[in-house]
Amino acid sequence: MKRVEQAKKILKENNQSKILKILENIDIEKQEELARDILKVDFEQIHRLYENRNGKNKRKDNIEPIKYIDKNKLNSKQRQEIEKIGEKIFRQNQYAVVTMAGGQGTRLGWKGPKGTFKLDVGENGKYIFEILANTLKKTTAKYGKEVYWYIMTSVENNDETINFFEKNEYFGYNKEKVKFFTQNVLPILDFEGNLLIDSSYKVKEASDGNGGVFIALKNSKMIEDMKSHNIKWVYVCGVDNIMANMTDEILLGLAIKNNVPSASKSVKKAYPEEKVGIFCKKNGKPAIIEYIDMDKKMIYAEDEDGELLYGESNIVGHLFNIETLEKMADYKFDYHCAIKKNSYLGENIKEVLPEEPNSLKFEAFIFDGFEYLDDMVILRVKREEEFAPIKNATGVDSPETAKEIYEKYYEV
Ligand code: UTP
């Protein structure tokens, strides 16, 4: 059967009458192109995503507080002992960092990849990627070993990200140790479950969320690459925390000492109503609960020392041993659904630019993988030392607040 006829049949079978109309009303060349794209769509997955949107089939979870270790309450003997365990891995060069830089960064409003944003610090300003490279260079200097650095990009920003590193000569980082890999995409749907077509006659897609990191690492053969270098532990973090301490001997030492497959960093919630994800136990497993899912009782609950029971905020810094990282790629992640504004091709073959959010974008979250872990270490670190995210253009978690934290710490 010819490609276009095959695509029409599939669209009919999957109740995609809007797209069928578009396909029937464009010229033959474009039909071929669109048909090719349609044949790549996994409609079974589309139905599943749509049916489960907004956690429709969500079960009731049992949420409990989770234990954490406060890095700054360790005494010097404990610190030394734990650091020593972690240091061994760095000395043997068995550690890698994964920077997740596949997000769209819509809130910041920066046109390029977020890592190419220049923050007004120091004499001439510094790019986010430059700051991260400088942080890793310090570990290289300390151990005389270059940390392997894997950078996750998206289909949209991959070329621009690589070109940026090339142009800036990897900010002095050894190019051989830096690898880029691209995450998967998922189709965007309208509120009725129809695919959207963009103005270049392609099925509209977007990155599958930072939870896509596991499958992307596997499919791109980066796990194999890590194993070939005998890497044992991998720290996975977001691109937008310019204070990220990505090579923390204490975090690593604690994971090894406690014989757990994973460890994450937290900072103390700034105030009870802060809109952050919080570490907890969900059905007996480590988890993160989003602020919108917390009721008032949970938000204000305190322990006997007057500390918030649910007060450990997620800073998107997660350590995994290589076996766990590999296994996660085989697990099924539930997708969360965000409502976004997206332009699309109307049935009259004219582009529609909606004024209101009109579409569903599906994302997996990295921390949803925690449900497959029996236990993990949560390490509370100091916000002013390790957390300065750049999320919004102004106000909270913006370049302005990040600059303030960065300059205070580095006294530039
Ligand atoms: P955010 O949730 O802050 O999303 O991502 P974002 O796309 O960067 O920003 P907004 O929401 O559009 O403003 C947290 C981290 O996860 C990465 C981001 O790059 C950031 O480091 N991420 C997010 C990915 O790598 N891929 C994704 O699909 C989503």
Q: Which cofactor or ligand species appear?
A: uridine 5'-triphosphate
CA-CA gap between termini: 67 Å
Return residue spans where pLDDT drops below 50 for at least 5 consecutive residues: none
Please identify the oligomeric state. single chain
Total of DSSP H or I helical runs spanning 4+ residues: 14
Mind telling me the CATH class of the largest domain? Answer: Alpha Beta
Main beta-sheet annotation = 8 strands, mixed
Question: What is the averaged pLDDT score?
Answer: 95
* Beta-strand proportion: 15-25%
Report the CATH architecture of the largest domain.
Alpha-Beta Complex
Mass-distribution shape:
globular
Give the key terms.
3-stranded antiparallel sheet; binds uridine 5'-triphosphate; globular; alpha/beta; 2 domains; 412 residues; 8-stranded mixed sheet; Spore Coat Polysaccharide Biosynthesis Protein SpsA, Chain A
Short description, anyone?
The chain has 412 residues and is of the alpha/beta class.
Structure overview:
- By secondary structure, the chain is α/β, with parallel strands linked by helices.
- The protein folds into 2 domains: about 40 residues, no CATH class; about 375 residues, Spore Coat Polysaccharide Biosynthesis Protein SpsA, Chain A (Alpha-Beta Complex), CATH 3.90.550.10.
- Helices cover about 35% and strands about 20% of the residues.
- It is built from 14 helices and 20 strands.
- The strands form 6 sheets. It has an 8-stranded mixed sheet with strand order 2-20-12-15-11-3-6-7. It has a 3-stranded antiparallel sheet with strand order 1-13-14, with no helix packed on it.
- A hairpin with a 2-residue loop joins strand 13 and strand 14.
- Helix 1 packs across helix 3, helix 5 crosses helix 10 and helix 8 packs across helix 12.
- The protein is globular, with a radius of gyration of 23 Å.
- The model has no long low-confidence stretch (mean pLDDT about 95).
- The site of uridine 5'-triphosphate has 20 residues, from loops.
